[in-house]
Amino acid sequence: MDKIDKITLKMIEFDAGSTERIQHFIKVHRFAQLIGCGEQLDEHTQFILECTALVHDIGIGPSTEKYGYCTGELQEKEGPAYAKALLSAFGLAQEDLQRICYLVAHHHTYDAIDGIDYQILVEADFLVNLHERQTPQEGVVTTLNRIFKTKTGIRLCETLFGVDQSAKTASH
After folding, report:
1. Average pLDDT of each block of 10 consecutive residues along the chain (172 residues)?
2. CB-based contacts of 3: which residues, under 8 Å, 6+ apart?
3. C-alpha torsion sign, points 50, 9, 99, 2
4. Residues 48 and 117: beta-carbon distance below 8 Å
5. How far is it, in rounded angstroms, from Cα 165 to Cα 157?
């Protein structure tokens, strides 16, 4: 079993009993993996991306316990410490842990995306959230135009949600 599989199992244990959260991070991970491969990330960046996709929402449970609810802001605030604690058992380099924690702390912040790993994480999370929230087509097109930058992510979003190229262009 490789390290990504072991981290996946650890996250399933972390979110035990919350099938929705587990299903969510599994789907985000797979889309991130797919987009990363499509964008031909180097092996190290791909690994950081996949680790982050698995733990990106790790702050939901702790925030809900601590505050009685959870927002994107609270996820960003509470998540990094839990991500670091969980991932520390896997022998990741300190700079890799720092990057993953940074991404967890910013994955709901869209105005300062500073790397391909960050961009792909956001796109993968949106692919899943757009479906889970049953976003109307107009919202999908708006998100596609504002958020998506990678060729692979754009193609996936258009295909998954049946976005007509003319509708995409007309909304600009």
Report:
1. 97 98 98 98 98 98 94 94 97 97 97 96 98 97 97 98 69 49
2. 47, 90
3. negative
4. yes
5. 11
Burial grade of 164 (CB within 10 A; 0-12, 13-18, 19 or more): exposed
Please enumerate in sequence order all residues whose Cβ is within 8 A of that of 26, keeping only pairs 6 or more positions apart, or say none. 8
Mind listing the domains of the chain with CATH numbers?
Answer: 3-170 (1.10.3210.10)
**Torsion over CA: 117, 144, 75, 11 (sign):** negative
Report pLDDT for 170.
52
Radius of gyration of the chain (CA): 16
Say if CB 35 and CB 152 are below 8 A apart: yes
Residues 6+ apart with CB under 8 A from 117: 36, 41, 45, 48, 49, 52, 99, 103
pLDDT at 166: 61
Q: Could you tell me if 113 and 119 are in contact, meaning their C-beta atoms sit under 8 angstroms apart?
A: yes
Q: What are the start-end ranges of the H helices in 89-150?
A: 94-104, 116-132, 137-147
- Single pTM value for the model: 0.94
